[in-house]
Amino acid sequence: xxxxxxxxxxxxxxxxxxxxxxxxxxxxxxxxxxxxxxxxxxxxxxxxxxxxxxxxxxxxxxxxxxxxxxxxxxxxxxxxxxxxxxxxxxxxxxxxxxxxxxxxxxxxxxxxxxxxxxxxxxxxxxxxxxxxxxxxxxxxxxxxxxxxxxxxxxxxxxxxxxxxxxxxxxxxxxxxxxxxxxxxxxxxxxxxxxxxxxxxxxxxxxxxxxxxxxxxxxxxxxxxxxxxxxxxxxxxxxxxxxxxxxxxxxxxxxxxxxxxxxxxxxxxxxxxxxxxxxxxxxxxxxxxxxxxxxxxxxxxxxxxxxxxxxxxxxxxxxxxxxxxxxxxxxxxxxxxxxxxxxxxxxxxxxxxxxxxxxxxxxxxxxxxxxxxxxxxxxxxxxxxxxxxxxxxxxxxxxxxxxxxxxxxxxxxxxxxxxxxxxxxxxxxxxxxxxxxxxxxxxxxxxxxxxxxxxxxxxxxxxxxxxxxxxxxxxxxxxxxxxxxxxxxxxxxxxxxxxxxxxxxxxxxxxxxxxxxxxxxxxxxxxx
Amino acid sequence: xxxxxxxxxxxxxxxxxxxxxxxxxxxxxxxxxxxxxxxxxxxxxxxxxxxxxxxxxxxxxxxxxxxxxxxxxxxxxxxxxxxxxxxxxxxxxxxxxxxxxxxxxxxxxxxxxxxxxxxxxxxxxxxxxxxxxxxxxxxxxxxxxxxxxxxxxxxxxxxxxxxxxxxxxxxxxxxxxxxxxxxxxxxxxxxxxxxxxxxxxxxxxxxxxxxxxxxxxxxxxxxxxxxxxxxxxxxxxxxxxxxxxxxxxxxxxxxxxxxxxxxxxxxxxxxxxxxxxxxxxxxxxxxxxxxxxxxxxxxxxxxxxxxxxxxxxxxxxx
Lengths: 527, 318
Fold this sequence. Notes:
The structure holds 2 protein chains of 2 kinds. Chain A is α/β, with parallel strands linked by helices. Chain A is built from 18 helices and 22 strands. Chain A folds into 2 domains: about 1-245, P-loop containing nucleotide triphosphate hydrolases (Rossmann fold, 3-Layer(aba) Sandwich); about 255-345 and about 430-520, Rossmann fold (3-Layer(aba) Sandwich), CATH 3.40.50.300. In chain A, strands 6-7-8-3-9-10 form a 6-stranded mixed β-sheet, sandwiched between helices. A 6-stranded mixed β-sheet of chain A has the order 16-19-20-13-21-22, with helices on both faces. Chain B is mostly helical. Chain B has one domain (about 5-305): ABC transporter involved in vitamin B12 uptake, BtuC. In chain B, helix 2 crosses helix 11 and helix 3 (about 60-90) packs antiparallel against helix 4 (about 95-105). Chain B starts with a helix and ends in a 15-residue tail after the last helix. The interface between A and B is medium-sized, with 30 and 23 residues.
């Protein structure tokens, strides 16, 4: 590596962590394919890659959780073998997992003290945590129970756990995924402080801006292998994106795509004063009326929890309606059974794609016919026709570019982007008149986001109406013809794409009436 | 005054509740590690038959034979627990199925009866745990019969209740144990050996069940009868829930159920005219009700069941 000998006066710099030729296979998948990875002491080193590129696997190997099938690990130049998380801890490696490893019913102090040697005293543990928090600027009440804390605070506990064990190498797996922007800013400050003290910080992310903001160097992973190491000061987000995806990325779908022409005469999906309750039985949807036209993408924005999920589910009849009407192509629907909406060719892409949208442990090919298996060509009387189910899958996997070892692989084993592609393949192949898509790009990597947006635009061009429910304002602005903002179960306002700006949308989302064009629309109905 | 009905029932509650307490306390420790062992009934019978055999065959001072009986009972029941541990921890078999299989294998018409048969256990146990007169206070009003006129096993159980409560909530090992039951991923990433913790506590739970079995064959019945625990193992499993997975509260539950069990002989002896079948079925009825109420997932969570109870752990799972 070029960086290793850069400092000539200090002689040869030995990297704090050096992983060489790491290979890790899971049934049907190679998660790491001969990966080389080096981190120096005192740097924040980002591990960048799309979902499924092998970032988490590599860091789990470094944390002693997975054992590599091949390859070697050197810490400060010495060959070591980590066969358990315990041995990783003993070698000064700490990891903050994406899904926190905390015992919810324990106090902060108990979580930090867990697994340490010596006699256990609650008081002593609490004092230590308080002192530690003070020293590193990570304040948290040692006596609080984990479930009472915000995610930001829980993350602090995770970091404290590693610091208590005097970790010299700290791995953070997608630490910002759960944080608000101000919380993330605080975290970045902490990471820089820790690096300044001579620790190595490994920051895993697929968000380019964050990587640019916090790290010194970046190793990019793609398709299970390392494709480059760059100094952040010498690169641009565009170059990183290219390395990560393997080609130039189009950041704004609007630039290159011909937009569909909306058929304003034909309303494919309409709701009239639609009402529904949330999971606890409280009213969550308080009379929403909207019209979706053929070829239109109608964005629905709002802070999450303002009835968007209930709207999608009430339309698709997977949630009971407590009032109002849903019309498909001008005909009223009963709304007691999701199958009715499937028959009416309304497609649903739910928020929780892996568990609501698909059957996680069922194979790709079976998931692809979940809506169509009852009839020709996939079944004959009570029997399934496996051959046509398989050829259907092979064709769709090809057409939608799903990366999978085979069509009989269970969907659970796929990365987030590929899971979403399987779901989209099923929904778009059923020839829908309208698609209700709830946060279809949330949690996906850049390449998959681009694919999904492309598919939505393409569907619109074929004359499908797309109801795009999203929290991502930029996405709504880039794709939609009109944007509705939801607030407390109602439509707070409507803006057309040409007039919309972020500030105005932000105000509407916060429940204020907007200045300008959206204002007169405020209220329950819009049509 | 000490023949007052209430006091008699209270004394019998402690007497009959003692084996329940042992078995339930053992199951608390096992479940705290995330392992559900429905084989308690089977393990108790293994303990009972081993204790019965040693009591009738070993020679030596009475106290020594009784100690041997307990060790034998603990060992026999731990063997049963080991089968379960291997199946559910190492092989990751469904815990419910494995536990039921253990009870069927070792239980009423199974291994324990077979052993009793080839060992020809017929006579009352030669050495039994008799009721003691502690500090000569057995005639003390009210407290005498309840507290100072019990068997050695009862006093042992009290020591163990204090010890295991202290272990669970005041020691580092107990903290680790609870972490394994709540979130094995977390415990593992903090360097706690999940597999060893689960094995240890499944075996310890088995040993406690063994003592419970010995309490039946050496004090309560105390002649060998096939399936002599008659469902006490199931009551113990319900008691774990009843006691919110805490040894101290489990003790309260055990004596409550002990009172229900003691009710039938006590009332009959006094000629109270309630059909004995009704009285005898009371503890089981209550058990069924408790289990039905508690069997919903949300109730379990609310009551403080270990979050990972019944879920096998595999480090490299994706």
